[in-house]
Write a structure and sequence with these properties.
By secondary structure, this protein is α+β, with helices and mostly antiparallel strands. Helix content is about 25%, strand content about 40%. Strand 8 and strand 9 (about 165-170) form a beta hairpin.
Length: about 180
């Protein structure tokens, strides 16, 4: 969707500019690949499932930003779409999220178990869980996802417990939030 918007914007801007010499015309598709999204945001959904006694965690992030921070941290080529890099990507994601996302419930630290990730055209979804958590009265979250990539990073969190949903927005450099239920 964003690519279509960028193409539309690029075509609109080109139609208002002065005619260029044929040898200086840049194809719209070449211009679009240079355009980055104008904001940096992640969304973390944390849901307590009473039936399974688990916290289910999903982090949605722009795929290009996630690839960029993994390249920066691990000094190697990262392509989340490449099947051949699946094992490497899983190792990198597990390590990165263990360093940038931590939870404690009712004053006790929780260990995130990495479940996996999916990538669609523009987003990456990373999945985690915490098992053996029958009840939850309070949750503290430390979320510095992608704050080591840009100071423009915004991390939005939605936490649902017993049908009660609370949200919190963290702007760089803030990384800590508390929820009570």
């Amino acid at each position: 969707m964003a690519i279509l918007l960028y193409k539309w914007l690029a075509v609109s801007l080109l139609s208002f500019s002065a005619p260029a010499q044929p040898e200086t015309i840049v194809p719209v598709t070449a211009m679009v690949t240079e355009v980055r999204h104008p904001f940096y945001v992640s969304v973390t959904e944390i849901t307590h499932n009473r039936e399974t006694k688990a916290l289910e965690i999903t982090c949605k992030i722009f795929a290009d930003d996630l690839e960029d921070i993994l390249k920066k941290n691990y000094k190697t080529v990262v392509d989340l779409s490449a099947a051949a890099q699946q094992a490497q990507n899983n190792r990198f994601l597990t390590d990165y999220f263990n360093r940038h996302l931590s939870l404690s419930a009712d004053g006790k630290p929780l260990k995130l178990a990495y479940v996996g990730f999916e990538k669609d055209s523009e987003s990456a979804y990373c999945y985690f869980e915490v098992t053996q958590l029958p009840t939850l009265k309070s949750l503290k979250v430390s979320n510095s996802i992608l704050q080591d990539l840009t100071t423009e990073q915004i991390n939005i969190m939605h936490v649902s417990v017993n049908g009660n949903r609370k949200s919190y927005k963290l702007d760089y450099p803030h990384k800590d939030a508390s929820f009570t239920f």
